[in-house]
Amino acid sequence: MESSVANASSPNRALVADPDTVRHEETVAALAAAGFVVRSAHDAGSLAAALESEPSDVLVVDNDLREFLPRNDAPVLLLLDPEDELDIAALEAWTIADFAYRAQPPAFRAHRALVLIARAAERTRRRSEAESLRESLRKVSAAIRSTIDPGRIARHLVDGIGEALGAEYVWFTTFPDSRVPQVSAEWNAPGLVPGVLPSELTDDIATFELAERLWAEAEVQPLPKRAPAGGTGSALAGRPGGAGALGGAGAPSASVVVPVGEGDLVLGVIWIARPDTAQEWTRAEIGLIQHVSGNLAYGLMQSHLIGAQQQVMYKLQELDQAKTDFLTTVNHELRTPLTSITAYLDMIRSGAGGPLPAGVGRMVDVISRNAERLRRLIEDMLTVSHQDTSGDLQLSHVNVGTLLRLVVSTLQPLADSRSLSLTVMHAPGTMTVHADEAKLEQVFANIISNAIKFTPDGGHVAVSSGITSDPGTVPSVVVRVEDTGVGIPETEIDQVFTRFFRASNASTAAIPGSGLGLAIAHDIVERHSGRLDVESALGVGTTVSVRLPLDTES
């Protein structure tokens, strides 16, 4: 590929391709006199070979050989006659191109060749500067996206833009808006007095109206620079769709106002001032600044949203802790009188108060059952209050058969009071799981007491356990609790593990309950890496299955 820029320490390199011998020699001589190192080509073949052999800084090519000239990066000077048709499309296909008439003096060709090389060098310089600026502002955008702190976002913006653009001052502020935080930041080059700001931007309403107009026009165009004027004020000139050139005593004049917005609404404004000696604002610079402002708007909106979410989260955590503290206190206050009630009931049953009159024993049994029911409800409430925070399990080797017999014996009086058949059947052998025994007892107590509660008088509740092993899986202990109760509507089965949920038919039948039993059991089983399933048919009964990994090390 041909190079368009010569090394500053080396002479310019030219390739002359012209089938006319006399004109060719004249062009070579003129270029050599201008300090060029010249190579020659006289036809399409030699032109192609020369292009492949080494690069050139400029190509001087006769129009008759134009079609053999491939697209390349080296500038092209085309030699033609005034009557020749100039192919503009061909010129545009080459990076930099110009033409000269064949009849013009050879020295003019050499001059045009030098001009083309200078244009190519300037183009390369501008490209390099643009790429450097693009990379610098890309880093600014990356820094903006790297944090959710509004102050740091604003700081990254003004510092990055100030250094990348060689500015004197950069100032940024947001307007009051529910979508972004209120934040401002400014930057000034070393040695300059901070706080220099055009008077037009010190008035909040005027600043907002200017930014709103610019945002509505969707274009930012700086006006020509003006030297600072005398007096204490500064003038802000504007035009539709344009930005103002800000001048005044002590204020830089090469400045631009860039709106920051999202959708139809403006969110803030950036003011950038450069020295009077700086070049005019280029379209590329404005485009890159607008791109950064887009990233800025997105970053500030995300920052505000995440900040608001964090505040809500902190508030919810405080409320949750307050709820936990409240429930813990209430449970403690309820347990104290309940403990006294059950203690006196035990004393009455033991005959400490004398023989019980006929029929009073049954009353005491009813009181005792309801006191036990109240105790379980208090424990369920306490469990729910700590369900998301306590976490730790006191693990040990638990014999599932022994635990189930203990739970069933505790609930047997409740089943007897309802004339229910409560049976337990275990598979042969010992079934052990690695679990928190107290938590597991709560699981089975909740499930079996639920089955008793939702089974009509005279029904049957069957508890069974065994070991199952699917191919490729760890063996599991499965406990099944089957009842002949009212069942659960099919559309509501997926909700039975939701806290405080009660099936519609249970509520209609006025069956007492808090809707916490299965929710607590489900949570505990999952924390043991197990699974709890419910199958039910309305009016037929319900089967609850608990699957836990078998403890193979016991």
UniProtKB/TrEMBL annotation:
InterPro entries: CheY-like_superfamily (IPR011006), GAF-like_dom_sf (IPR029016), HATPase_C_sf (IPR036890), HATPase_dom (IPR003594), His_kinase_dom (IPR005467), HisK_dim/P_dom (IPR003661), HisK_dim/P_sf (IPR036097), Sig_transdc_His_kin-like_C (IPR004358)
Main location: membrane
Top EC group: transferase
Compartment(s): Cell membrane
Annotated organism of origin: Arthrobacter ramosus
Domain Histidine kinase: 329-552
Keywords: Kinase, Phosphoprotein, Transferase, Two-component regulatory system
One Pfam match: HATPase_c
The EC number(s) this enzyme carries: 2.7.13.3
GO MF term list: kinase activity
Protein name as catalogued: histidine kinase
Catalytic activity: ATP + protein L-histidine = ADP + protein N-phospho-L-histidine
SMART domains given in the database record: HATPase_c, HisKA
Gene3D superfamilies registered for this protein in UniProt: 1.10.287.130, 3.30.450.40, Histidine kinase-like ATPase, C-terminal domain (3.30.565.10)
